[in-house]
């Protein structure tokens, strides 16, 4: 009896749900420290490491379940799928966080950014206020959803390229 080839979608969904759950826990941890609106290089670095780790684990599990084989395309499908599923979970949780748990989150984020701009740039207060007003246009829920989905797909594509290249192993047709 011939073995059936595993489906990439199953791995994308499973590991996307895992990454989404880990991301929600990470955001809740940041919320408990009142750092959920600040971002910064450390938060971004930890998020990227977690994302890369889950993508690699998902690819490795697919490869293991597929008799040690995985094409570059299959690796990309898995990585992008993981990022998309986790991104949807993150977007939904972010909307709950900003709308229910901490309705002042966007105002806190804008004030934090304003303070950072005042400390790190030579912009005048009027220029900073103008930039803050322009930034408010991108904080509507619909814009956050659109940009969140685009970011999830593009980031997971970029983060999947190298692992997919390293882990790929084509079946040889005899």
UniProtKB/TrEMBL annotation:
InterPro entries xref list: DUF4199
Pfam families: DUF4199 (PF13858)
Keywords: Membrane, Transmembrane, Transmembrane helix
Membrane-traversing stretches: 12-33, 39-57, 78-101, 145-167
Identification of the protein by name: DUF4199 domain-containing protein
Source organism of this protein record: Arenibacter arenosicollis
């Amino acid at each position: 009896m011939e073995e059936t080839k595993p489906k990439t979608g199953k791995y994308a969904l499973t590991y996307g749900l895992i990454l989404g759950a880990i991301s929600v826990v990470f955001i809740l941890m940041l919320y408990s420290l009142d750092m959920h609106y600040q971002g910064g290089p450390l938060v971004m670095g930890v998020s990227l490491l977690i994302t890369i780790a889950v993508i690699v684990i998902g690819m490795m599990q697919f490869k293991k379940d597929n008799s040690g084989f995985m094409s570059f395309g299959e690796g990309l499908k898995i990585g992008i799928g993981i990022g998309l599923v986790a991104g949807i979970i993150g977007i939904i949780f972010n909307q709950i966080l900003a709308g229910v748990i901490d309705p002042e989150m966007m105002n806190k984020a804008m004030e934090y950014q304003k303070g950072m701009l005042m400390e790190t740039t030579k912009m005048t207060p009027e220029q900073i206020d103008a930039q803050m007003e322009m930034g408010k246009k991108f904080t509507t829920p619909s814009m956050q959803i659109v940009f969140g989905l685009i970011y999830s797909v593009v980031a997971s594509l970029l983060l999947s390229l190298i692992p997919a290249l390293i882990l790929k192993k084509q079946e040889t047709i005899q």
